[in-house]
Amino acid sequence: MALLPYSLILLLLSIPLPSALAAGLGTVPVNGTCNLANNGLDPDTRRFVTDCDATGYCSSQGVCEPKGCRKDQYAFGYGSNPQPPLCPSGTFCPDEENICLPLIDVGSPCQLNRDDECAPPPNSDDLSSSMNSNGSVCLSFTCQWQNATIGSPCIVENVAYTGYGSHGSVFIQVVSRDNCKTPESYCDGSQRVCMRVKAVGDSCGGDKECGSYNCHNGACGQSPGAPRQLKTWEYVITGVGIVLLMVGIFVVLFVVHRRQRDSRRAEIAAYWQEQTSYRRSLFAMQSAYPSLSRPGSGTMYALAPSSPSMTTFAESDTMRGREGWTMHTEDSRTELVGGSSSSLDAGGGPEPSARDSGTEKKRTGPL
Questions:
Q1: Domain map of the chain by residue range?
Q2: Which residue positions does the secretion signal occupy (predicted)?
Protein backbone atom coordinates (compact mmCIF):
# COMPACT_ATOMS: atom_id res chain seq x y z
CA MET A 1 0.00 0.00 0.00
CA ALA A 2 1.35 3.39 -0.92
CA LEU A 3 2.19 5.98 1.74
CA LEU A 4 -0.62 8.42 0.80
CA PRO A 5 -3.47 5.87 1.09
CA TYR A 6 -1.92 4.62 4.30
CA SER A 7 -1.92 8.14 5.78
CA LEU A 8 -5.56 8.47 4.74
CA ILE A 9 -6.42 5.28 6.59
CA LEU A 10 -4.63 6.54 9.71
CA LEU A 11 -6.68 9.73 9.53
CA LEU A 12 -9.88 7.72 9.27
CA LEU A 13 -8.90 5.69 12.32
CA SER A 14 -8.89 8.83 14.45
CA ILE A 15 -12.64 9.32 13.85
CA PRO A 16 -14.72 7.19 16.26
CA LEU A 17 -17.67 5.40 14.70
CA PRO A 18 -21.22 5.51 16.06
CA SER A 19 -22.17 2.56 18.23
CA ALA A 20 -24.93 1.41 15.91
CA LEU A 21 -22.53 1.38 12.96
CA ALA A 22 -19.79 -0.38 14.90
CA ALA A 23 -22.18 -3.09 16.06
CA GLY A 24 -22.92 -4.11 12.47
CA LEU A 25 -19.32 -4.49 11.33
CA GLY A 26 -17.28 -7.66 10.89
CA THR A 27 -19.76 -9.93 9.13
CA VAL A 28 -18.68 -9.90 5.47
CA PRO A 29 -16.71 -13.04 4.49
CA VAL A 30 -13.64 -13.14 2.29
CA ASN A 31 -14.30 -12.09 -1.33
CA GLY A 32 -17.39 -10.19 -0.16
CA THR A 33 -18.10 -6.51 -0.79
CA CYS A 34 -17.04 -3.99 1.88
CA ASN A 35 -16.90 -0.23 2.34
CA LEU A 36 -13.49 1.26 3.12
CA ALA A 37 -15.14 4.23 4.83
CA ASN A 38 -16.42 1.96 7.59
CA ASN A 39 -12.91 1.26 8.82
CA GLY A 40 -12.41 2.94 12.18
CA LEU A 41 -12.33 2.56 15.95
CA ASP A 42 -15.13 1.34 18.17
CA PRO A 43 -16.14 4.31 20.36
CA ASP A 44 -16.38 2.15 23.48
CA THR A 45 -13.43 -0.22 23.28
CA ARG A 46 -11.29 1.71 20.76
CA ARG A 47 -10.87 -1.53 18.86
CA PHE A 48 -10.31 -1.41 15.10
CA VAL A 49 -13.45 -2.55 13.23
CA THR A 50 -14.25 -3.16 9.58
CA ASP A 51 -16.95 -4.69 7.39
CA CYS A 52 -14.94 -7.90 6.93
CA ASP A 53 -14.89 -10.78 9.37
CA ALA A 54 -11.91 -11.80 11.52
CA THR A 55 -10.06 -13.46 8.61
CA GLY A 56 -10.21 -10.63 6.05
CA TYR A 57 -9.54 -6.91 5.55
CA CYS A 58 -11.24 -4.37 3.31
CA SER A 59 -8.99 -3.50 0.37
CA SER A 60 -8.98 -0.28 -1.63
CA GLN A 61 -11.10 -2.06 -4.30
CA GLY A 62 -13.95 -2.57 -1.75
CA VAL A 63 -13.44 -6.33 -1.48
CA CYS A 64 -12.65 -8.35 1.63
CA GLU A 65 -9.26 -9.94 1.05
CA PRO A 66 -7.53 -12.60 3.19
CA LYS A 67 -5.26 -11.04 5.80
CA GLY A 68 -1.58 -10.99 4.87
CA CYS A 69 -0.13 -10.78 8.40
CA ARG A 70 -1.14 -10.91 12.04
CA LYS A 71 -0.24 -8.64 14.97
CA ASP A 72 -1.15 -11.14 17.72
CA GLN A 73 0.61 -14.37 18.58
CA TYR A 74 -2.67 -16.25 18.37
CA ALA A 75 -5.03 -14.76 15.81
CA PHE A 76 -8.79 -14.84 16.39
CA GLY A 77 -11.27 -16.56 14.11
CA TYR A 78 -9.01 -19.12 12.41
CA GLY A 79 -9.48 -22.17 14.57
CA SER A 80 -7.49 -25.03 13.05
CA ASN A 81 -7.03 -23.21 9.74
CA PRO A 82 -3.58 -21.80 8.82
CA GLN A 83 -2.90 -18.32 10.19
CA PRO A 84 -1.10 -15.49 8.39
CA PRO A 85 2.57 -15.02 9.37
CA LEU A 86 4.00 -12.63 11.93
CA CYS A 87 6.00 -9.70 10.65
CA PRO A 88 9.82 -9.92 10.84
CA SER A 89 12.00 -7.62 12.91
CA GLY A 90 12.06 -3.99 11.70
CA THR A 91 8.51 -4.17 10.40
CA PHE A 92 5.01 -4.18 11.90
CA CYS A 93 1.53 -5.40 11.00
CA PRO A 94 -1.07 -2.57 11.06
CA ASP A 95 -4.56 -2.88 12.49
CA GLU A 96 -5.87 -3.82 9.01
CA GLU A 97 -3.46 -6.79 9.03
CA ASN A 98 -3.06 -6.58 5.27
CA ILE A 99 0.74 -6.38 4.83
CA CYS A 100 3.89 -5.91 6.88
CA LEU A 101 5.18 -2.30 6.83
CA PRO A 102 8.52 -0.79 7.95
CA LEU A 103 8.71 0.94 11.34
CA ILE A 104 7.63 4.60 11.43
CA ASP A 105 10.08 7.37 12.29
CA VAL A 106 9.50 9.81 15.16
CA GLY A 107 6.96 12.53 14.27
CA SER A 108 5.16 10.34 11.71
CA PRO A 109 1.49 9.24 12.10
CA CYS A 110 0.72 5.96 13.88
CA GLN A 111 -2.36 4.10 15.01
CA LEU A 112 -3.86 4.36 18.52
CA ASN A 113 -1.82 2.60 21.22
CA ARG A 114 0.42 0.99 18.60
CA ASP A 115 3.80 1.83 20.14
CA ASP A 116 5.26 -1.12 18.26
CA GLU A 117 4.75 0.76 14.98
CA CYS A 118 7.33 3.41 15.94
CA ALA A 119 11.07 3.04 15.28
CA PRO A 120 13.20 2.91 18.46
CA PRO A 121 15.51 5.81 19.47
CA PRO A 122 19.32 5.40 19.42
CA ASN A 123 19.37 4.98 23.25
CA SER A 124 16.50 2.51 23.31
CA ASP A 125 18.15 0.42 26.03
CA ASP A 126 18.07 3.40 28.40
CA LEU A 127 14.53 4.51 27.55
CA SER A 128 12.88 1.13 27.22
CA SER A 129 10.37 0.19 29.96
CA SER A 130 7.03 -1.55 30.44
CA MET A 131 5.29 1.74 29.53
CA ASN A 132 6.61 1.89 25.95
CA SER A 133 7.99 -0.18 23.09
CA ASN A 134 11.77 0.07 22.90
CA GLY A 135 11.61 3.66 24.21
CA SER A 136 8.96 4.83 21.68
CA VAL A 137 5.28 5.68 22.19
CA CYS A 138 2.40 6.62 19.93
CA LEU A 139 0.78 9.76 21.40
CA SER A 140 -2.09 11.53 19.68
CA PHE A 141 -1.52 9.35 16.59
CA THR A 142 2.11 10.49 16.31
CA CYS A 143 5.29 8.56 17.11
CA GLN A 144 7.25 10.06 20.02
CA TRP A 145 10.31 9.11 22.00
CA GLN A 146 9.65 8.76 25.72
CA ASN A 147 12.71 10.76 26.74
CA ALA A 148 11.37 13.95 28.41
CA THR A 149 13.22 14.52 31.70
CA ILE A 150 12.00 15.94 35.02
CA GLY A 151 11.13 19.66 34.71
CA SER A 152 10.93 19.68 30.90
CA PRO A 153 7.68 20.18 28.88
CA CYS A 154 5.75 17.05 27.97
CA ILE A 155 2.85 15.78 25.83
CA VAL A 156 -0.22 14.12 27.37
CA GLU A 157 -2.79 11.87 25.70
CA ASN A 158 -6.01 11.00 27.59
CA VAL A 159 -8.21 8.29 26.08
CA ALA A 160 -11.59 7.37 27.60
CA TYR A 161 -12.77 3.76 27.50
CA THR A 162 -16.31 2.59 28.28
CA GLY A 163 -16.64 -0.40 30.57
CA TYR A 164 -19.63 -2.48 31.63
CA GLY A 165 -20.15 -3.99 35.07
CA SER A 166 -21.52 -7.44 35.86
CA HIS A 167 -25.04 -6.00 36.41
CA GLY A 168 -25.04 -3.89 33.25
CA SER A 169 -23.70 -0.73 34.85
CA VAL A 170 -21.58 1.55 32.66
CA PHE A 171 -18.36 3.20 33.80
CA ILE A 172 -15.71 5.31 32.09
CA GLN A 173 -12.00 4.59 32.49
CA VAL A 174 -9.51 7.22 31.34
CA VAL A 175 -5.99 6.10 30.39
CA SER A 176 -3.41 8.91 30.43
CA ARG A 177 -0.08 8.55 28.66
CA ASP A 178 2.81 10.94 28.10
CA ASN A 179 6.36 11.13 26.76
CA CYS A 180 8.14 11.57 30.12
CA LYS A 181 10.90 9.10 30.85
CA THR A 182 9.55 6.17 32.79
CA PRO A 183 9.43 4.84 35.40
CA GLU A 184 10.93 7.74 37.36
CA SER A 185 8.72 10.59 36.03
CA TYR A 186 5.27 11.44 34.71
CA CYS A 187 3.66 14.42 32.95
CA ASP A 188 1.49 16.61 35.16
CA GLY A 189 -1.84 17.19 33.42
CA SER A 190 -2.28 20.80 34.52
CA GLN A 191 1.30 22.11 34.28
CA ARG A 192 2.34 19.89 31.34
CA VAL A 193 5.74 19.41 32.97
CA CYS A 194 7.50 16.13 33.82
CA MET A 195 7.50 15.47 37.57
CA ARG A 196 8.98 12.77 39.77
CA VAL A 197 6.67 9.86 40.55
CA LYS A 198 5.23 9.62 44.07
CA ALA A 199 6.01 7.07 46.76
CA VAL A 200 3.59 4.65 48.40
CA GLY A 201 1.18 6.52 50.67
CA ASP A 202 1.37 9.89 48.87
CA SER A 203 -1.80 11.49 47.49
CA CYS A 204 -2.41 10.96 43.78
CA GLY A 205 -4.91 11.60 41.03
CA GLY A 206 -4.02 8.77 38.65
CA ASP A 207 -2.01 5.57 38.35
CA LYS A 208 0.76 7.20 36.33
CA GLU A 209 1.61 9.54 39.22
CA CYS A 210 2.69 6.61 41.44
CA GLY A 211 5.92 4.72 41.14
CA SER A 212 3.89 1.53 41.73
CA TYR A 213 1.39 2.61 39.04
CA ASN A 214 -1.41 1.93 41.51
CA CYS A 215 -3.46 4.91 42.74
CA HIS A 216 -6.16 3.60 45.08
CA ASN A 217 -8.64 5.86 46.89
CA GLY A 218 -6.52 8.94 46.26
CA ALA A 219 -3.26 7.45 47.60
CA CYS A 220 -0.43 5.50 46.04
CA GLY A 221 -0.58 1.86 47.00
CA GLN A 222 1.67 -1.12 46.61
CA SER A 223 2.21 -2.53 43.15
CA PRO A 224 -0.27 -5.31 42.38
CA GLY A 225 2.60 -7.72 41.76
CA ALA A 226 4.72 -6.67 44.73
CA PRO A 227 5.33 -9.38 47.35
CA ARG A 228 3.92 -8.71 50.80
CA GLN A 229 6.52 -7.91 53.45
CA LEU A 230 5.56 -9.43 56.80
CA LYS A 231 6.59 -7.79 60.05
CA THR A 232 8.39 -9.53 62.91
CA TRP A 233 5.35 -9.65 65.19
CA GLU A 234 3.37 -11.35 62.41
CA TYR A 235 5.97 -14.11 62.25
CA VAL A 236 5.88 -14.44 66.06
CA ILE A 237 2.09 -14.68 66.20
CA THR A 238 2.06 -17.21 63.38
CA GLY A 239 4.67 -19.38 65.14
CA VAL A 240 2.87 -19.21 68.49
CA GLY A 241 -0.40 -20.11 66.78
CA ILE A 242 1.17 -23.17 65.14
CA VAL A 243 2.66 -24.33 68.49
CA LEU A 244 -0.65 -23.84 70.32
CA LEU A 245 -2.46 -25.75 67.60
CA MET A 246 -0.06 -28.69 67.92
CA VAL A 247 -0.35 -28.69 71.73
CA GLY A 248 -4.13 -28.57 71.45
CA ILE A 249 -4.14 -31.57 69.13
CA PHE A 250 -1.91 -33.54 71.52
CA VAL A 251 -4.16 -32.69 74.48
CA VAL A 252 -7.31 -33.71 72.64
CA LEU A 253 -5.73 -37.02 71.56
CA PHE A 254 -4.51 -37.68 75.11
CA VAL A 255 -7.97 -37.07 76.61
CA VAL A 256 -9.68 -39.24 74.01
CA HIS A 257 -7.21 -42.10 74.48
CA ARG A 258 -7.44 -41.87 78.27
CA ARG A 259 -11.21 -42.14 78.12
CA GLN A 260 -10.90 -45.16 75.88
CA ARG A 261 -8.44 -46.80 78.30
CA ASP A 262 -10.71 -46.03 81.27
CA SER A 263 -13.68 -47.53 79.48
CA ARG A 264 -11.70 -50.67 78.62
CA ARG A 265 -10.39 -50.93 82.18
CA ALA A 266 -13.95 -50.67 83.53
CA GLU A 267 -15.10 -53.47 81.22
CA ILE A 268 -12.25 -55.75 82.39
CA ALA A 269 -12.93 -54.93 86.07
CA ALA A 270 -16.64 -55.70 85.64
CA TYR A 271 -15.74 -59.01 84.00
CA TRP A 272 -13.46 -60.12 86.83
CA GLN A 273 -15.97 -58.96 89.44
CA GLU A 274 -18.56 -61.16 87.79
CA GLN A 275 -16.15 -64.10 87.77
CA THR A 276 -15.28 -63.53 91.43
CA SER A 277 -18.95 -63.33 92.40
CA TYR A 278 -19.64 -66.56 90.52
CA ARG A 279 -16.80 -68.34 92.30
CA ARG A 280 -17.99 -67.10 95.70
CA SER A 281 -21.47 -68.42 94.95
CA LEU A 282 -19.94 -71.83 94.24
CA PHE A 283 -18.09 -71.76 97.58
CA ALA A 284 -21.33 -70.78 99.33
CA MET A 285 -23.15 -73.65 97.66
CA GLN A 286 -20.46 -76.10 98.77
CA SER A 287 -20.65 -74.76 102.33
CA ALA A 288 -24.42 -75.31 102.34
CA TYR A 289 -23.86 -79.05 101.71
CA PRO A 290 -20.77 -80.10 103.70
CA SER A 291 -21.41 -83.84 103.12
CA LEU A 292 -20.90 -83.34 99.40
CA SER A 293 -17.26 -83.33 98.24
CA ARG A 294 -15.99 -81.66 95.10
CA PRO A 295 -16.28 -84.24 92.26
CA GLY A 296 -13.10 -85.64 90.76
CA SER A 297 -12.01 -88.44 88.49
CA GLY A 298 -12.35 -91.93 90.05
CA THR A 299 -14.23 -90.72 93.19
CA MET A 300 -17.22 -92.70 94.43
CA TYR A 301 -20.19 -91.04 96.10
CA ALA A 302 -22.51 -92.61 98.63
CA LEU A 303 -25.83 -90.88 98.66
CA ALA A 304 -28.83 -91.81 100.79
CA PRO A 305 -31.84 -92.28 98.53
CA SER A 306 -34.14 -91.45 101.41
CA SER A 307 -32.80 -87.88 101.51
CA PRO A 308 -34.82 -85.77 99.07
CA SER A 309 -32.59 -82.75 99.47
CA MET A 310 -29.47 -84.60 98.38
CA THR A 311 -31.23 -86.14 95.43
CA THR A 312 -32.49 -82.77 94.33
CA PHE A 313 -29.00 -81.27 94.62
CA ALA A 314 -27.51 -84.07 92.52
CA GLU A 315 -30.08 -83.59 89.80
CA SER A 316 -29.85 -79.81 89.66
CA ASP A 317 -26.12 -79.24 90.16
CA THR A 318 -24.58 -77.64 87.06
CA MET A 319 -21.02 -78.44 88.11
CA ARG A 320 -21.31 -82.22 87.80
CA GLY A 321 -19.48 -84.12 85.07
CA ARG A 322 -20.71 -84.61 81.56
CA GLU A 323 -21.78 -88.20 82.34
CA GLY A 324 -23.38 -87.29 85.69
CA TRP A 325 -22.77 -88.89 89.10
CA THR A 326 -23.29 -92.66 89.22
CA MET A 327 -22.76 -95.15 92.06
CA HIS A 328 -21.40 -98.50 90.86
CA THR A 329 -19.41 -100.34 93.55
CA GLU A 330 -20.76 -102.63 96.16
CA ASP A 331 -19.45 -100.39 98.92
CA SER A 332 -21.80 -97.72 97.82
CA ARG A 333 -24.88 -99.79 98.38
CA THR A 334 -27.04 -99.15 101.42
CA GLU A 335 -29.49 -101.39 103.20
CA LEU A 336 -33.01 -100.64 102.15
CA VAL A 337 -36.23 -101.70 103.79
CA GLY A 338 -36.63 -105.51 103.47
CA GLY A 339 -32.86 -106.08 102.96
CA SER A 340 -32.76 -104.84 99.34
CA SER A 341 -30.03 -102.65 97.98
CA SER A 342 -29.97 -100.26 95.03
CA SER A 343 -27.62 -97.87 93.25
CA LEU A 344 -28.42 -94.32 92.22
CA ASP A 345 -27.50 -92.78 88.92
CA ALA A 346 -27.91 -89.32 87.67
CA GLY A 347 -31.53 -90.08 86.77
CA GLY A 348 -32.29 -90.45 90.51
CA GLY A 349 -34.31 -93.76 90.46
CA PRO A 350 -33.08 -96.89 92.36
CA GLU A 351 -31.82 -99.71 90.14
CA PRO A 352 -32.16 -103.21 91.70
CA SER A 353 -29.05 -105.35 91.70
CA ALA A 354 -28.83 -109.04 90.78
CA ARG A 355 -28.85 -110.18 94.44
CA ASP A 356 -31.90 -108.08 95.15
CA SER A 357 -33.62 -109.60 92.16
CA GLY A 358 -33.00 -113.07 93.47
CA THR A 359 -34.36 -112.15 96.88
CA GLU A 360 -37.47 -110.78 95.31
CA LYS A 361 -37.91 -114.00 93.36
CA LYS A 362 -37.73 -116.00 96.55
CA ARG A 363 -40.31 -113.83 98.18
CA THR A 364 -42.66 -114.33 95.32
CA GLY A 365 -42.94 -118.05 96.16
CA PRO A 366 -45.65 -119.61 98.30
CA LEU A 367 -45.67 -118.44 101.87
A1: 1-102, 308-356
A2: 1-22
